[in-house]
Amino acid sequence: MRRVWKLLFGRYLLVTNTVSSGVLMLVGDVAAQEIESRLESKSTSLGLDWQRMFNMTLVGLSQGPLHHYLYKWMDVLLPGASVRTVFKKIAIDQFAISPIFIVTYLYSAGLLEGASVTECTAELRHKYWTIYTADWLVWPPTQFINFYLISPKYRVLYINAITMLYNVFLCYIKHNDDLVTQLTGKARKKEDSSDSVS
C-alpha cells in the first residue's frame, strides 16, 4: 500500500492529479444535479444527465494538468512557506489563476455541450462576477492552508477535495441562469441566451 501511495504521489503525480480532478468534478456535478432535481421537485426516477456528467468529467480532467503545473511553477517562483510567501501565492492565485480557470471552465463546458463561442462568451459575461466573488469567499482561506501547511505533492489532491464541494456550486451555476439572476439582479440578455445550453 505504501509503495502504491509513493508511486501515486511521486512518479505518477500528474496522472493522480488529473484523474482526481476528473472524478471530483464528476462527483460535484452529480451532487449539483441532485440539488437541481430536489429544488425543482422532480422525481429522482428521471435519473441523471449522463452526457452532462461525461462533459463535466472531461472538464475536470482538463483542469488537472493545469493545476499540477501551475502549483509547480508557483513553488519554483516563490519557494518556501513563510506567511509573506503564502500571501504572494494567494495573490497570484486570485488575480491570475482564478480568472483563467473560470474562463477555461465556462468555455470548455459550454463547447462540450454544443454551445457556440459567442454563446460561451455571453455566458461568461453573465456568470463571471458571480463565480469570481464566490472564489474570493472560498479560496484565500483554503489556499492559505494549502500553501502554509500542505506538502507540495499533496496540494492538488487537497485542492481537488475542496473543489469537489466547490464544483457543486460551479455545476449548479453553469446549468442554472436563474440563480445568477437572483444574486446579481441582472437577467441574461435574451439574444445572448437563445439557443444556449442552460
UniProtKB/TrEMBL annotation:
Subcellular localization: Membrane
Predominant location: membrane
InterPro entries, A to Z: Mpv17_PMP22
GO CC list: membrane; mitochondrion
Membrane topology: Multi-pass membrane protein
Assigned keywords, A-Z: Membrane, Signal, Transmembrane, Transmembrane helix
Signal peptide: 1-32
Transmembrane domains' residue ranges: none
Pfam families referenced in this protein's UniProt entry, alphabetically: Mpv17_PMP22
GO biological process annotation, one example: mitochondrial ribosome assembly
Family as reported in the entry's similarity comment: Belongs to the peroxisomal membrane protein PXMP2/4 family.
The protein's name in its UniProt record: Pmp22 peroxisomal membrane protein
Lineage summary: Eukaryota, Metazoa, Ecdysozoa, Arthropoda, Hexapoda
